[in-house]
Design brief:
This protein is of the alpha+beta class and 504 residues long. It is 33% helix and 19% strand. The strands form three sheets. It has a six-stranded antiparallel β-sheet, with no helix packed on it. The longest helix has 30 residues. The two termini are 40 Å apart.
């Protein structure tokens, strides 16, 4: 079983444990030992006119076990719950999508589960039978054809979900609340369609769970395809300009949003070959797989830690690293060509600003390589730092051969571009803070531990006696478990030190 399968199994377990099985699941007709309102934490809709006893979330006053406070830190303060107010379970959920202006109909499919009390027999160890009471799930579903023209001009249109009443004599069951409106900030060729699934069932005072809709799900389908909404972070007024939003607008210019959830999250069935997204649906437990960052293979640059640690000549070491700068600059040139093809002047300005910073980074990497060539202490510290990092990686990856223990390109580049600021106290680079932004498992820790190991060794090589002591690296984390994890990984590098530079 690989990591993806493990994560998928964990997701499915959480789904069944917190929300319950969907229709079509192998447990869709499960039998619970207690009422579903007490068994499940979320994913169900209570009646809109239910009293507070049913609507109030009984878990809102639950407190997590808290470790004893150590004192003296901001995160030791107790959580202030005074502003949380009363939490009520939802009676509705929905979504908003963008549809073509000439769309005729949309099909809404509603799925949910009802639970009915059921008797069943059990046998004890002595062989005697005993009657028990449980709650059997009954999978329910219904489709509603929505005519868009009938929604025009109405503030709200309510549509009955077939076969959703608890009792045939009840006035209402589950309802779809539909609203359509123009979206002038996008285009006159599209409209916004908002649909809520609302529980208007009559409350059962004796068996309140019977009037709830469990594992509620709403899906919309149109064969013409929904309209994808572009990222809106780059459309802010000039006086609200924000660099982060502009960069996000550039990065995600090709990513479209097909629905927005209300009281729930949403997802969609991936587009077909023609690019159409025909189905969007609600989900109580959203998930997204972050794509793995795979480093580029650059054959003419030396990335292997033990090989870098074995260089005896500063000239040879620097020559083995110089091609890294050449490849980086070629990549920058390729991005410049892409920038010229952008259809927005604002995005061009953002891209050119980012490329300008990339060119500065290339110059800093080149300067760091030249320092290894000309500064004897820097060369020795770099070689020993690679040995420390390699030894630590060797203990962690026992079956990996030495030639496979290597830096990723961005890690080595990060180490090299920071060398001028670490070596020269008067260097202008010390005015800036470097930010590493990578997904989990991308290699951030090794990237910053490299400069840390270099700094510890370089300081001891440069200064003698008491001047080499004192604080060299400050590490601060917001999570206790992360602090312990990072401390262990950093200490492993220190224990890998050799000779007079060994840190104990």
């Amino acid at each position: 079983m690989n990591a993806r399968q493990v994560r998928n199994d964990l997701y499915q377990t959480l789904q069944v444990d917190l929300i319950g099985p969907d229709n079509g699941h192998e447990f869709e007709r499960e039998l619970l030992p207690e009422t579903p309102t007490g068994w499940y934490l979320t994913g169900y809709l209570v009646p809109a006119d239910a009293d507070d006893d049913l609507r109030r979330d009984d878990t809102e006053d639950d407190e997590l076990d808290e470790p004893p406070a150590a004192g003296g830190f901001d995160d030791d303060a107790p959580v202030d719950r005074s502003a949380s107010g009363n939490n009520y379970l939802p009676s509705s959920m929905g979504m908003t999508t963008i549809i073509p202006a000439d769309l005729k109909t949309v099909t809404a499919k509603v799925e949910w589960g009802d639970y009915i009390e059921e008797k069943y027999e059990t046998k004890g160890q002595d062989g005697t039978s005993k009657t028990e009471f449980g709650y059997r799930r009954s999978p329910c579903s219904a489709s509603v054809q929505i005519t868009i023209s009938e929604l025009e001009g109405a503030r709200q249109t309510l549509l009955q979900v077939p076969e959703s009443k608890v009792r045939p004599s009840d006035a209402c069951g589950l309802m779809l609340s539909c609203i359509v409106r123009p979206v002038p900030h996008l285009s006159s060729a599209c409209k916004a369609l908002t649909i809520f699934l609302v529980n208007y069932r009559t409350t059962d005072d004796q068996h309140s769970y019977r009037s709830c809709a469990f594992q509620a799900k709403l899906a919309l389908h149109c064969s013409e395809g929904f309209v994808g909404r572009p990222d809106l972070r780059g459309t802010a007024a000039t006086h609200l300009y924000d660099t982060d939003n502009s960069i996000a607008d550039l990065h995600y210019r090709d990513v479209l949003e097909y629905a927005v959830g209300h009281g729930t999250s949403v997802d969609y069935v991936p587009a077909k070959a023609d690019g159409k997204v025909e189905t969007v649906f609600t989900t109580w437990l959203p998930s997204h797989e972050v794509e793995r960052v795979i480093p580029s293979i650059i054959n003419d640059v030396e990335f292997r830690m033990f090989t870098l640690a074995a260089f005896e000549s500063a000239e040879s070491l620097a020559d083995s690293l110089v091609p890294l700068v050449d490849h980086y600059r070629k990549w920058i040139d390729a991005q410049t060509a892409i920038t010229e093809a952008l259809d927005s002047e604002a995005r061009k300005d953002t891209a050119n600003a980012a490329l300008g910073e990339a060119r500065v980074a290339a110059e800093r990497i080149e300067e760091g390589i030249e320092l290894l060539r000309t500064n004897a202490e820097a060369f020795e510290a770099f070689v020993l730092a690679n040995k420390c990092m390699g030894k630590a990686a060797e203990r962690r990856m026992k079956d990996v051969p030495h030639e496979k223990i290597a830096w990723r390109p961005f890690q080595l580049a990060f180490v090299l571009l920071n060398l001028p600021g670490l070596i020269d106290p008067k260097n202008d680079q010390r005015k800036f803070v470097e930010l590493l932004f990578f997904p989990t498992g991308g290699g951030k820790t090794e990237a910053y531990l490299g400069p840390a190991a270099f700094q510890l060794i370089f300081r001891r090589l440069t200064y003698t006696g008491i001047r080499s002591c004192g604080l060299s690296v400050l590490m601060r984390y917001t999570l206790r478990l992360l602090t312990l994890d990072q401390l262990g990984r950093f200490s492993a590098r220190l224990r890998s030190g050799v000779g007079k530079t060994q840190a104990t």
